[in-house]
What does this fold into?
Amino acid sequence: MIKKIKASTSEKILLVFLIILAFFSLTSFIIIKNKCIFVKNYNPDEIKFSTPKNIAVLNVPCGNVIIELYPKVSKNAVERFKMLIRNSAYNDIAFHRVIEDKLVQAGDLEFGEKNNLDYGKIGTGKSGYGTINSELDGDFKFTKGSVGLARTFKNNTEDSQFFIILQDEPLFEGEYTPVGKVLYGLKVLKKIKHQSNSEYILKPDFINTFGMYK
Amino acid sequence: MYINQMRIYIVILLLLFSAASSKANTIYNLIKIPNLEIYEINTKNKVKYFYALKSFRLGVKKNIKCFNSDIENLNLKYKVISRNLNQYSSGFLKKINLKYVVLCQNLSISGINTAAIPDNIMKTLILDVNFNKKYFERVIHHEIFHIINDSFKEIFDEKKWSNLNEKKFRYAECSTCTDRWDLSIYNKTEGFLTEYSKTTPSEDMAEIFSFLMYNKNMIDEKIIYDVVLKKKISLLKSNILKIDSNFKFYDKKN
It folds into this structure.
């Protein structure tokens, strides 16, 4: 006959403690693993837009970023941007330059593609459509969430690369061509992979899709 | 073998990526000068003023040096600098490619002290706030002219300018390969306002321009008896007006 041994009080306390510890460890592991867990994913179909034709939806690892484009501020730049978005040119393109809480940059169509990533050249690629002139005279404030076209040191070299700022950048005014502003989903962008010691990212996050809403 | 090569390649890439610091701030990204902070960016003519928080070195050989200045000195000099730069409209500054002014002290190139370093490509003027108190204000306009000249080289024909001088006269090879440094105005001008005007055509133009912007009355008196100077002023003014027909040769003294 097997004698049943009763657990002592201290053993019971230890067991409960171990169970609680295991529970917290598991939960924190899930939370740490899933960087998107507390980020709201906006559904554009549930939002009413005053200018739906100028709404673009950028889908990234943590959800949607809803952007309003401003053709009245930068006519040619927005035209170029819309054309690339409609052609699905930005799908699977890397966020190759990310500065934590400051800026995310993507749109290198030549060297930033998921299956053809070139770390040596990323950031220098072209779209194949040629450069366009800078549009710097529009009345636009580069506040948090502003979207602009990137360029080289020289003006009039804008092509397909764009950036979104995660903090106000008044010095960008008159320097970069604005194309729009994030209406919803700025927190989604803060979760884009960054590195603390470099602006350029190894194994970067990618744009899933980037499309016009209408 | 191939795997080892790949590993080395990845390590090199990692090192390269780590080298590009993400701490670089917006000012550095814009004008490639480190250790700067915003002094004033909300100005009427859209000039953005930065100041050196710490000393900085520039250039391929790091031969350009400038140091930080104390805040009281900066506040004092900023008033003078902005008062003079406010003479230029935002439209004109945009045309000549000047947007950023960096304030620092003891500016030097390869050990030679200099008042300023104009860079129209980076849209920047680095100014030594402690340069020559006597001529400080006029020197600001002198340096502005260098930006104008660099942005519109085709307008300021140095050969045409040199031909206005007496046939015997020759400029030096460069502004630093002579000892003609004096910035004080000649009593008897004879085609040149200062000794420094005699260094190069571009410095000659810059000196005249600076007087036109700082103390026009003084040269108005001089040109009555100086035909060469009169022709130079006329040519310079017409060239500036080609860039901006609304340009005003503002005289601070008036």
